[in-house]
Amino acid sequence: MNAPLEFNGTDPFTGEPIRFWMHDGVVSTEAIAGANVAVARGWIVPGLVDAHNHVGIAPGLGVTIERARELAAQDLRAGTMLIREVGSPVDTHPLDADAHGPRFLRSGKHIARPKRYLRDYGVELDDPDQLAAEVAVQARAGDGWVKLVGDWIDREVGDLAPLWSREQLVAAVEAAHANGARITAHVFGAEALPDIIAAGFDSIEHGTGLDEDLIDQLVERDIALVPTLIQLETFPEIAAGADRFPKYKQNMLSLHAGRHEVFARAREAGVRIYAGTDAGGTIKHGRIVDEVEALTTIGFSPLQALAAASTAPRDWLGAPGIVHGARADFLVLDSDPAEDLSTLRRPLHIVCGGEKIPA
User: 311-328: string of b/e by CB count within 10 Å (b at 16+)?
Assistant: First the structure.
């Protein structure tokens, strides 16, 4: 059994001193006699949150649980200690046994239609009226979330198009909530968004097709947004390979060109925005700091961007930060992140489950 440790520093969100103890992997705000001082000064923040991540996906698919563990370790070395895994062909629940690995909240498998998403990534429904039934299945397989594909290229249309009717989406939301889960949707374009928002989804992934009216509806309905800014940088590459579908190609380029304005409007309107990398596939794991820095391009201050990857998504997801009785997941930084976000790239300590992790 390790000796208890004491940590002292500054909370960058309040500017106030922070002091706590750690024993058996748990935070204590009550003094523990005989504790050794592990940190006397520094800026201390809760472990980072990647709100859109796929440790069960890598280029070429075929991810084993050991490969998923390696990918999770890459995220952890970047400071990510809570992952919202929004769709994976692999059941990563065995990773929950890793006491000093990231925690997970999962969405089960993606739900899509045949030939309307990446092949072999998720469940493909021949009958779209079976959406609600499949949502119930994935709700039971996950950890409080379900993810469906809201739009994707329709080769007959030659552009992004919705996969589901409004009636099917309303039934999907009812099924998710009846099974104790929240529901989110992948949406790149504009056409699928009105029905998804009207159906009462809990969050939107990407959301590049939002306009002012839809943004206002997100605020009114308290629907969250995870824009995955670093993933959107791949849109020109996607477009470059879509010469057979000129309408789709131009749409992807237009969505890319307007992304900063769209998300700046969403931020100004008061939409709750959280950091997510979309790691897996084309985006490498361990890039949460890149996403935090990218949030400053849509008007977040450095401290607001950090909050969107730490305290704010923890509140949203129901995961405690540095509070009495919580798992000890935190970073100790060498300078004030409100002044310099690059401090996140050189943490003095990464503590996950009460154990110091090599950066």
Answer: bbbbebbebebbeeebbb
Of residues 188, 186, 40, the one with CA closest to residue 112: 186
C-alpha distances out from residue 64 to 94, 169, 234, 284, Å: 11, 32, 26, 17
Locate 169 and state its tokens.
């989406």
Asked whether the beta carbons of 185 and 191 are under 8 A apart, the reply is no
Short-list 221, 233, 313, 319, CA closest to 273:
313
Q: Which of 342, 231, 225 is nearest to 293 (CA)?
A: 342
* pTM score of the predicted model: 0.97
Residue 324: pLDDT above 80? yes
Q: Judge contact between 32 and 258, C-beta under 8 A.
A: no
CA distance 124 to 325: 42
Closest among 167, 171, 170, 208 to 186, alpha carbons compared: 208
Please provide the distance, in angstroms rounded to a whole number, between the alpha carbons at the two ends of the chain.
Answer: 24
Beta strands in 29-121 (DSSP E): 36-39, 43-46, 48-53, 80-85, 103-106, 110-112
Nearest alpha-carbon partner for 88 in 138, 150, 48: 138
What pLDDT does 331 receive? 98
Neighbours of 38 (CB within 10 A): 17
